[in-house]
Design brief:
- The complex is a heterodimer of chains A (about 270) and B (about 300).
- Chain A has about 270 residues and is of the alpha/beta class.
- Chain A has 11 helices and 10 strands.
- In chain A, the strands form 2 sheets. A 6-stranded mixed sheet of chain A has the order 6-7-8-3-9-10, sandwiched between helices. In chain A, strands 2-1-4-5 form a 4-stranded antiparallel sheet, sandwiched between helices.
- In chain A, helix 4 packs across helix 5 and helix 5 crosses helix 7.
- Chain A is globular.
- Helices cover about 75% and strands about 0% of the residues of chain B.
- In chain B, helix 4 runs parallel beside helix 7, helix 4 packs antiparallel against helix 10 and helix 10 packs antiparallel against helix 13.
- Chain B has a domain of about 180 residues: MetI-like fold (Orthogonal Bundle).
- By secondary structure, chain B is mainly α.
- Classes of the chains: A alpha/beta (about 270), B mainly alpha (about 300).
- At the A-B interface, helix 3, strand 6, helix 4 and helix 7 of A face helix 8 and helix 9 of B.
Chain lengths: ~270, ~300
């Protein structure tokens, strides 16, 4: 059963690869398995993510979406319990062979599902990453902070109180602060893990518009529980279920029922999950 | 039927059950326990003040008490009670102890909380707690029998019972408890802060320096002030390791005498109610006030940070 599923998946993959041959591969994931102790969170995940696309990941809770993201960012170096096997190529470089993981992390922006306003001022929150990169010039920092906060649709609400604590903002504001902080890294890859959980619908739509623009500058991985959000934004989408990547494909095609596994359609149409 | 049962229910409104009385009893007991802390503090302050009162109102001279370096209570013709040298003794020993204990304890706490894992962490924590439980007289003993000859030999000085000796001993004594509290403060910083900073590409030291330490600021300050308080209040080890000589120290190789050690060593030899006896209690009041000010400052600083 599992074998036939894997086979059909690899066939599907070669198809999508041929249609997108001209695109540059940003991430090439092969045989990725993440486990905690003896429990595999995801097993044998294979697909490519192309430059300047929004790649959606959908799937019910416990499907291994967050573990997948953690592996991309090499967060396992801090969690002795987390074991990663398989290969992840970022810009054709095997990330497990890198000598400086911090350099990799600084090029990947992550927005966590629950907002994390670091216990410093709003300004410091956004200026932290540029400062870590060694930018000291006040005017440059000011400019970065303003641009990032404007893009994350937070600027108008906080421009008069940049010196107050970031951790005192409301949940939705903190989430936009987190997005601004991720953007301040000027990342090549932006990972959004269910960013809209704590954000109101109007702001969500504003951020979605920004993401469509950002696509021209970076690659975006969008993990979402809202399948319609994936449909609105993602160029291609992967469906995760119980630690396996069931299939990946062109988002519109998946939503129009051109699927290899009927479970994908079941999930998209809300029949389980 | 419904009216019947609701009437029965309403009757319960007027009936006090055993649970109700137990609740009241516990409330009273807890209230007494809570208030007793205040009663004891006030009681001790009143007692110490009463005992020192005679001296305080009759022959107390502010300039002599705080300004004179002569502590000669047993001079039969003209006893002099200047505590300047004793203050200098306590301050120099505590200062040196903090110079040693602050970096030492913060370093240990950072290692335990941020770097060590699994078994190492557990063992270290137990060991630190164990160190904190060593009685102060044992520390004094180490100062007297190990540090003393060591200092004499290493630095080629005539006496080893000095500010250096007591400072090191007191620093080592204060470090474990400071480590414990500092580690608690670091552990209280949520992991999501660390993860968020890591995701930005911060190195481990940058994560600690930029995120964890600022977030734990209050607790760390509390740990340091507790150490200072311990330094001022410690008696036995300081009595044994300082050399107990009334002296304003010119270097760390001078012997000194601490305020607390003076009380401990002399109170038993004075006649109750005598001037000397009353002076010792006056020193007690002074120590009490210092501790009070240290705690109050700590409290105000912590509140100030909270309100920011």
């Amino acid at each position: 059963m599992v074998e036939t599923m894997l086979e059909s998946k690899s066939e599907g993959k070669s198809e999508t690869a041929s249609t997108a041959e001209q695109k540059k591969v940003k991430l090439d994931i092969s045989h990725l398995t993440v486990s905690y102790g003896n429990d595999a969170a995801i097993s044998d995940v294979n697909f490519k993510i192309f430059e300047n696309e929004i790649f959606g990941i959908i799937g019910p809770a416990n499907a291994g979406k967050t573990s997948f993201l953690k592996a991309l960012n090499l967060m396992n170096t801090f969690d002795a319990n987390m074991k990663v096997e398989g290969k992840i190529l970022f810009n054709d470089r095997d990330i497990h062979q890198l000598k400086n993981v911090y350099a990799l992390r600084s090029r990947i922006g992550v927005v966590f599902p629950l907002p994390v306003g670091l216990p410093m001022t709003i300004y410091e929150n956004v200026a932290l990453s540029p400062r870590l990169r060694g930018i000291k010039d006040k005017a440059t920092l000011d400019e970065i902070v303003q641009r990032c906060l404007q893009r994350s649709a937070l600027w108008d609400e906080v421009k008069d109180r940049l010196d107050s604590l970031g951790s005192l903002l409301s949940g939705g504001q903190q989430q936009r602060l987190t997005i601004a902080r991720a953007l301040s890294q000027e990342p090549e890859l932006l990972i959004l893990d269910e960013f809209s959980i704590a954000v109101d619908p109007v702001t969500t739509m504003r951020i979605e518009e920004v993401l469509k623009e950002l696509k021209n500058e970076m690659t975006i991985i969008l993990v979402t529980n809202l399948v319609q959000q994936a449909r609105r934004l993602a160029d291609r989408t992967a469906f995760f279920l119980e630690g396996k990547c069931i299939e990946t494909g062109d988002t519109e095609a998946l939503f129009n029922g051109q699927v290899e596994n009927s479970k994908t359609t079941d999930y998209i149409e809300g029949r389980f999950g | 039927m419904t009216t019947q049962s609701s009437e029965a229910m309403n009757e319960q409104f007027d009936r006090r059950t055993l649970d109700w009385y137990i609740d009241k009893l516990v409330e009273v007991i807890v209230f007494i326990s809570g208030i007793s802390a205040i009663i004891f503090v006030i009681g001790i302050f009143v007692f110490v003040t009463m005992e020192g009162m005679g001296f305080l109102f009759d022959s107390f001279s502010f300039s002599e008490f705080f300004g004179s370096e002569y502590w000669e209570p047993s001079d039969e013709d003209a006893p002099e009670y200047g505590i300047l040298a004793l203050i200098a003794g306590t301050a120099s020993v505590t200062g040196l102890a903090m110079l040693i204990a602050i970096p030492f304890s913060l370093g240990t706490a950072i290692y335990i909380a941020e770097f060590s894992t699994g078994k190492t962490r557990e063992y270290l924590k137990v060991l630190v707690e164990l160190l904190a439980a060593i009685p102060s007289v044992v520390w004094g003993f180490i100062g007297l029998t190990i540090m003393n000859p060591l200092i004499i030999e290493l630095f080629d000085v005539p006496v080893g019972l000095t500010v250096l000796n007591a400072g090191i001993i007191l620093g080592l004594m204060a470090a474990p408890i400071m480590t414990s509290i500092a580690e608690d403060a670091l552990k209280a910083v949520p992991d999501r802060y660390r993860e968020a900073a890591e995701a930005l590409g911060a190195t481990r030291w940058q994560v600690i320096y930029k995120t964890v330490l600022p977030a734990a600021k209050n607790g760390l300050l509390g740990a340091i002030l507790l150490g200072v308080g311990r330094g001022f209040g410690e008696t036995m080890a300081v009595l044994m390791a300082t050399g107990h000589a009334v002296n304003i120290p010119g270097s760390v190789f001078d012997s000194v005498r601490a305020l607390t050690a003076t009380i401990a060593a002399e109170l038993g030899e004075t006649a109750v109610g005598s001037e000397h006896y009353q002076v010792l209690f006056t020193i007690g009041i002074f120590l009490f006030l210092i501790t009070f000010v240290i705690n109050l400052t700590a409290d105000l600083i912590v509140r100030g940070i909270k309100n920011q």
